[in-house]
Design a protein that fits this description.
Elements lengths: L3 E9 L6 H9 L7 H6 L6 E7 L8 E8 L7 H7 L5 E7 L6 H12 L5 E6 L7 H12 L9 E3 L8 H13 L12 E9 L3 E8 L4 E2 L3 E5 L3 E10 L2 E3 L1 E2 L3 E7 L4 H4 L5 E3 L7 E9 L8 E2 L3 E6 L2 E9 L4 E2 L4 E12 L6 E6 L5 E9 L12 H10 L4 H12 L1 E3 L11 H13 L3 E4 L2 E4 H21 L6 E2 H8 L9 H8 L4 E4 L2 E4 L8 H16 L7 H4 L3 H12 L3 E3 L5 E3 H18 L2 E2 H8 L3 H13 L3 E4 L2 E4 L2
Parallel strand pairs: 1-3, 1-4, 4-5, 5-6
Antiparallel strand pairs: 2-3, 7-8, 7-15, 8-14, 9-13, 10-11, 10-15, 11-12, 11-14, 16-21, 16-23, 17-20, 18-19, 18-22, 19-21, 22-23, 24-26, 25-26, 27-29, 28-29, 30-31, 32-34, 33-34
Length: 635
């Protein structure tokens, strides 16, 4: 395939105004492919053709146009909408003998709802009018107050080929100043045709945008989520290894059953771009050229990509939207759709007779709950005002959610991962967001969590100064319900310990904190110490030693500080007694070799109640090693 800049052009206009004949004359390809189209003389479904044009600036790279010929008949407008969802330029066709028709007007509004801003008008059948200039003037008047007010108008006739060279030049001039479709690493191919070829299998076609697809690549079908693999790629009839944005693309998919697994309206995309949604927050826009308003609660059809989905419209702050106005609302879909923030839809009535409005997606994974809460409306207004600003959108979504996984932040948007990362880095430098592990957090919310954690540790020091600090398990229990994600706990503790706090094992404390018994416990602590040192190798049982809550708290403090050793569940001894007993045992074994419990009991002059748990403790702390009924030293 020739190297060049790829664009998608779609026809628009009333039935029988010569769209298909014009495409055939321009490209040599008849876009009408169905027998019924041939017999009826009208386009029923989408047709496709390819046109290569030289760049008007004599650049060596060509302009490679994928042309989508859409139906003009009012009964097939839903098919027309499927062909103009991701185009770069509209070829508006108006017949000189008929002039501007209602379907022409509806097509123009649909184009504007999808955000199309460039067009060329072909005045077809120019040989059938006696006043060509008046026909042109009438079209120019109709284009007034539309995105295409300044579009070039080219008189043509397929009889004799009049105006075809001028039309090609006009297309070339318009596209020369049009940005090439962006590759943001997020390919989406809305499926507009599905068929099976003998010996090849299932093939889907569509207009690829947002990224590049490669032969052998693993992809998913949305909304089903079915995983498949690209066996083969064709673009404009040629096998290719890759296909990029702005190209008509055919994919041969592995392990896909045509009837069961893939349908028109599905999207071929990548697994890491998220799932389909059944609820979308949107900005509804009605053209000033529209003739009707729409009301809250209306059941309608959402046309997106190559498919359409039934939905209910819920308006946020009004009961009705009139011509030339906008309103915030929510589309509650009756079937899932794979949409991105920044996508544009067309809304048509339930009977598919009228185009009602356009819609811009503000939240592609919206929640029905809390739609009319006080915070929702200003947040949607903020997103609507900054839909093209990646930094503002990052800040808006992170502020709303408190924290967002970096891999999911604006994954379903028109911005690349690099653009989102750059915006996040800048917002981090500005103190708007904070990076916490795998998450981007709102700086204000994150600081509030950090302060709460700090206060929790400080409170524990005040209430229990005898403790080393707060256990991580206790802190986790306090914050578990308030963290947007459980995985944020470790980054929170790390952030806390960047300041005046430290983590010691499984405990967090202020760096300068030193455990000390409070006044009420000091008497109990002194009594415990006295009892343990009075008979160091024959101490009372733990139950006898600390029979009440006060003495138990004092004992816990002595254990935490190492003054007392927890030998077993029922035996505690002073740290000094344990150390001296261990030294005595080491000396005996070095001099006499491995020793039995009885021999070591006699050496220590104590009872089995003490020596058995003591030796088990020394085994656990790697002082001694049990071999049968004898103990030897570890080293």
């Amino acid at each position: 395939m020739a190297e060049g800049r790829h664009f998608i052009v779609a026809t628009a206009g009333h039935v029988d105004h010569g769209k298909s004949a014009l495409v055939k004359a321009l490209t040599g390809t008849d876009p009408d492919r169905l027998p019924e189209e041939k017999s009826r003389g009208i386009t029923i479904d989408l047709g496709f053709a390819h046109l290569e044009l030289p760049s008007p600036d004599s650049s060596p790279s060509s302009l490679l146009l994928g042309i989508v010929d859409v139906p003009g008949h009012e009964d097939f407008v839903k098919n027309m909408v499927a062909g103009v969802g991701s185009i770069d330029l509209a070829l508006i066709v108006v017949a000189a003998d008929d002039g501007w028709m209602p379907q022409t007007e509806e097509h123009l509004q649909i184009l504007s709802y999808f955000g199309v801003r460039k067009a060329v008008v072909a005045l077809t059948k120019a040989d059938l009018t006696a006043d060509e200039q008046n026909a042109i003037a009438t079209i120019r008047e109709r284009l007034h107050n539309s995105p295409f007010a300044d579009a070039p108008i080219v008189p043509t006739s397929v009889i004799g080929g009049r105006g075809l060279s001028e039309l090609r030049a006009a297309l070339s001039q318009q596209l020369a100043t049009t940005a090439t479709p962006r590759d943001i690493g997020k390919p989406r191919l809305p499926v507009d045709r599905v068929f099976t070829l003998p010996g090849i299998g299932t093939v889907v076609t569509g207009t690829l945008f947002g990224g590049t697809l490669r032969r052998g690549q693993s992809v998913v079908l949305q909304p089903s989520g079915k995983t498949t693999r690209i066996r083969r790629i064709q673009s404009h009839g040629q096998d290719v290894e890759t296909s990029g944005p702005g190209t008509r693309t055919a994919l041969n998919l592995a392990d896909v059953d045509t009837i069961e697994d893939v349908h028109r309206g599905d999207v071929v995309t990548l697994a890491d771009l998220g799932r389909s949604s059944e609820c979308l927050d949107v900005l509804v826009e009605i053209s000033p050229r529209a003739s009707r308003s729409i009301k809250d609660g209306l059941r309608l059809r959402v046309h997106h990509g190559s498919g359409n989905v039934p939905a209910q419209l819920v308006l946020l702050d009004r009961k009705e939207v009139g011509a030339g106005t906008c309103a915030l609302g929510q589309l509650r879909l009756e079937a899932p759709a794979f949409a991105f923030v920044g996508d544009r839809f067309t809304l048509r009535d339930w009977s598919e007779q009228h185009t009602l409005a356009g819609a811009l997606v503000l939240d592609a994974d919206a929640d029905r709950k809390g739609l009319k809460t006080k915070a929702r409306l200003p947040w949607l207004e903020r997103v609507s005002a900054s839909i093209g600003d990646v930094g503002q959108l990052v800040a808006a979504f992170v502020t709303r959610d408190g924290a967002v996984r970096r891999t999911q932040l604006l994954a379903k948007s028109h911005f690349s991962a690099a653009e989102v990362a750059d915006a996040t880095a800048r917002l981090t430098r500005e103190g708007v967001v904070v990076i916490a592990g795998d998450f981007v957090c709102d700086a204000t919310a994150w600081e509030a969590l950090r302060v709460r954690a700090q206060e929790a540790v400080e409170s524990a020091h005040r209430d229990h100064p005898e403790h080393l600090g707060v256990s991580l398990s206790d802190l986790h229990a306090r914050f578990d319900a308030d963290l947007p994600y459980p995985e944020l706990f470790d980054p929170l503790i790390a952030a806390l310990c960047e300041g005046e706090f430290v983590r010691v094992g499984s405990v967090v404390r202020r760096a300068g904190h030193r455990p000390a018994l409070p006044e009420p416990l000091r008497v109990a602590g002194a009594k415990l110490t006295q009892q343990l040192t009075a008979r160091p190798l024959e101490p009372p049982s733990r139950r006898e030693l600390a029979p009440d809550a006060v003495s138990q708290r004092a004992l816990r403090f002595l254990v935490d500080t190492g003054e007392v050793v927890e030998v077993s569940a029922d035996l505690v001894m002073s740290g000094q007694a344990v150390a001296e007993a261990a030294d005595t045992i080491r000396t005996f074994i070095r001099e006499h070799g491995p020793a039995t419990v009885s021999e070591l009991r006699q050496v220590l002059s104590t009872s089995r109640r003490i020596v058995v748990p003591l030796l088990e403790y020394l085994d656990r702390t790697f002082v001694t090693l049990r071999q049968g009924d004898r103990r030897t030293l570890r080293h």
